[in-house]
Amino acid sequence: MFSGYFRMKSQCDACGARFERGPGYYLGSIYFNYGLTATLVTAGYMLMFVTTDWSEPLKLGLLGSFTLLFPLWFFRYARCFWYGMDYYFDPEADAEKSPRSSS
Description:
3 helices; about 65% helix; mainly alpha; elongated
């Protein structure tokens, strides 16, 4: 799906499915990425609060770094998940837009 770390291909090399559907199509993947990041940071803070005696600045530094780096790493997976969910729930819409589906 990707030609670089952040750049998506316009369509699948194997089946011809279009990845870019229109403006705002991947907005849901951003929400998914944000939600997972927030959940992990909250759980991480609670776990550190209960199991460690680290100072608050140390906890803030660790979780702040995680909050910045994790969404960048998870970007590709969030987009793949979003596309997969769309394909799972509405495969006909993808088949109609695929250039190879008419043959």
